[in-house]
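Quality-control log, excerpt.
Job 1 of 2 completed; input and output follow.
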Amino acid sequence: MNSSFSIRPLDPFADAGLLHGWVTHPKAAFWMMQEASLPDVEREYMAISASEHHDAFIGEYEGEPAFLMERYDPAHVELVGLYDAQPGDVGMHFLVAPTDKPVHGFTRAVITAVMETLFADPATRRVVVEPDVRNTAVHRLNEAVGFEIVEKIAKPEKDAYLSVCTRESFHAAVGAAL
């Protein structure tokens, strides 16, 4: 992983204020928490923290909080009954913190760091995502790091493109050595 990035476990209480500002920001519309109160955010991340199938992390850039990363087991969370989970599948969500001073290429660097983190576990064979079909920006980012759209699926809260990225397709896309 780029040495400017680090990832630490999210603390649902200590990080709730920070997260609240991120998930309710207009740029986070696809996170679907625009109307969430601070206690709503605390509850959501306490539930994730308590789950054996879902984890949340704060990504830092040069020591400052810069993004949220969630890792989940799609056989138990988010995609149950919507696709045939395979051994080694890991689900992922990420959200870059809003900023008044965007840096060109930063979001791509974040998703690359997230994918490197997930593939650092040798048990991870594929990363699975389910972004909203309308989220064209994330579709471009996903493609840039090796995701391929498998199919359009109907989730209760959205229509999504089920997409997968193998370790090999990630490394081919970003030019990293296996």
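Job 2 of 2 completed; input and output follow.
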Amino acid sequence: MSMRIRTSARTALAVAALAAGTVLTAPAAGAAPQATAPKFLSASQLPPHPTSSWTAGPVTEGFPDEIGFCVSTEGVPSYDYKNRLFRTDVDTNAAQLTVVADTAAHAKALAKHYDDLVRTCAERIEKADPDVRAEGRDYGTLPVEEGARVRGLHTETSGGATDIALMSVGRDGRTVTVVKWAQMGDFDDAPVAAFKKTTTTAVNKLC
């Protein structure tokens, strides 16, 4: 992960994420599965890097650690999560998570829960570790399917390590996706416009 928060801070943050979230209603028994699995972003659909091309990993089961510094599965139903990780030859990485809820109402609640966790992430990081300064920014909503929101997170340790991440949460019907981009740097280094385009593409591919 490019977000170089100390291990102790990550542990405390996981606890804070549970405290911040609300327990969502469990999936209904016998809910019908989605006919077609959501499609994922390809490497070419990520914000272009000026010196290195993106490489996409396979789509795998589970919740990726690369997203877990702000978002977690604590306090939510045991849905089947899928993810895809992306990397460049430099210190820039990305990840996408998708989850299909049993109803559109549950998906709406899950998307709001995850966006709330991203929104409050900077505050929870600072509470978890006084050696880390964190700032979050809201880059607004996107008019795609049932909607998406893009946020930014900058962290700086007392030792001078500085990292920037962009995260978005979007929904199409019963399907929710979380997309993250991260590298060393600050808000000036964040490709916000390109990431918004990536998020729009990600949500459009969910159906």
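Post-run check on job 2. The longest strand covers residues 132-142.
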